[in-house]
Amino acid sequence: MQSQLRKDLLDAFTNAGEAYLSGQVIAELIGCSRTAVWKHIEELRKEGFELEAVRRKGYRIVKTPEKITADELRLGLKTNFIGKNVHYEESVESTQKIAHRLAYDNAPEGTVIIAEEQVAGRGRMDRKWHSPKYTGIWMSIILRPNIPLPKAPQLTLLTAVAIVQAIEDLTGLLPEIKWPNDILIRGKKVTGILTELEAEADRINSIIIGIGMNVNQTREDFPVELQEIATSLFIEKGEKVSRSDLIKGIFRNLEKLYLLYLEEGFLPIKFLWEGYAISIGRKITARTLSNSITGTAKGITDDGVLIMVDDHGKTHHVYSADIEL
Amino acid sequence: MQSQLRKDLLDAFTNAGEAYLSGQVIAELIGCSRTAVWKHIEELRKEGFELEAVRRKGYRIVKTPEKITADELRLGLKTNFIGKNVHYEESVESTQKIAHRLAYDNAPEGTVIIAEEQVAGRGRMDRKWHSPKYTGIWMSIILRPNIPLPKAPQLTLLTAVAIVQAIEDLTGLLPEIKWPNDILIRGKKVTGILTELEAEADRINSIIIGIGMNVNQTREDFPVELQEIATSLFIEKGEKVSRSDLIKGIFRNLEKLYLLYLEEGFLPIKFLWEGYAISIGRKITARTLSNSITGTAKGITDDGVLIMVDDHGKTHHVYSADIEL
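Output (structure tokens, whole complex):
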């Protein structure tokens, strides 16, 4: 399925855009016989791609499959490393778990694990994450930045910006970020981010970013206890959203922001992040494992740490907490 | 093999010390028939234990097997959590890799993975570690301290102290510590420590301490390129050293120091560490991935960071480096 020929074929369609590709041209571009071209086109159709074939013009792809396929992710992907190495799974315990193993075994930076379903998906603090089949984006991305350990949480904020941008671009919806790792639409959670890392005591080996995104669920697809606090892009937009287009949008934005971050540090990310932040200037309660602080969220530091001023005027730096608005 | 009965039997011998235990007493202590006692004693013998049986007195253990066994580690172990859950393997890629998986799957604090041989053992910075069969201690220990990420390297220094104490106690040899993770005898490396961690962006899930210790190798057991820089306890002491006694000594010292650390912080560990440190006050070169500094090692900070003063009188804080004396 993921042969070089197949990759070349999808790249050829990507480069052609709306134009048709004749069997002859395809054969030349990917270096096979015209008969073999026909065989590959048939295989794409079997995977759920719809191709329009026009006499004397050739083929073009008019619709991609419902189910995410590696081929579909390949089509139109223009990143340099994020998403170039994709492990696609039908059903897994959690994509984070697989990513940890691959990361420990030296998988290259930008490796992504995508599953159609997680049976034991997790959020922060070991909380369960509901991730049913074919409706959402459940994936983990391996990065290997050369940064000190305490800066790792910045990648959560960076990823949140990349995801909000991808949703905006594709759907026109206007998501907001609740520090540190929730993306909300109209106050309901649409995406969570779990950033984990593997390190030698003083050197990061890998950062593993888990993304759980509710895309095409109906309201009834959510368990009753989640219906008031969670939403999906489908519910908010009123129409189905292409998961693979969204994934590719995330890859593209994430790579762009990540390279900016490696070059310039966190500051440009901070400014972008603040533009989407919902909690700044508002009265919030931050709950940590050991205590809770109520006060006004003033913003984040240049390092991404939340600044709060409590009712006695005392300033607190919050490194990790759950936020209630 | 690791049935509750077997554990109870070894605990009974541990508590009896040098005294004999009659079949009747054993049967009562572990709650089985006298016939079953005989069967368990035979199984211990098959594992390589030597038992003395004296008429009208009973049994006592006079010699434990050459090969490390879970039973032998159980015998005499008086810790509360470190080493209570041991995974013993004949041959593995690396104990760190197994420990990472177990840690991710919520193995309890103090879980230990011991292997007789590692075929892909690793040291810091992905360097290979030579770990042949039956001669050394190759193990990984899972801890779950509630400390901020930047403090993780302190566990390397703490473990070094625990190991030096265990070697001293058992052999009378006087090892020294070369910051941050090498234990030397007469200038040659006898033990390396690799501290790795898994974390959510801002919360440690597990610290995995890998220990590689050369115990009973002869000089000829080392590859030629290591003979000038590595040594073993056998070479230094002139006689074989019981690996399981050493392991139990490490467990005991590590647990004691770790509890002290959780209670009092790094300061008491710092003072112990300084007593064994070889490099302090000497001219050293510290090589990092990006540059190298030559100067005098002044000591470590209260956080365990190496302090160096270079030839121009400038002070440097070294978080991670290879040290040349």
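The radius of gyration of chain A is 21 Å.
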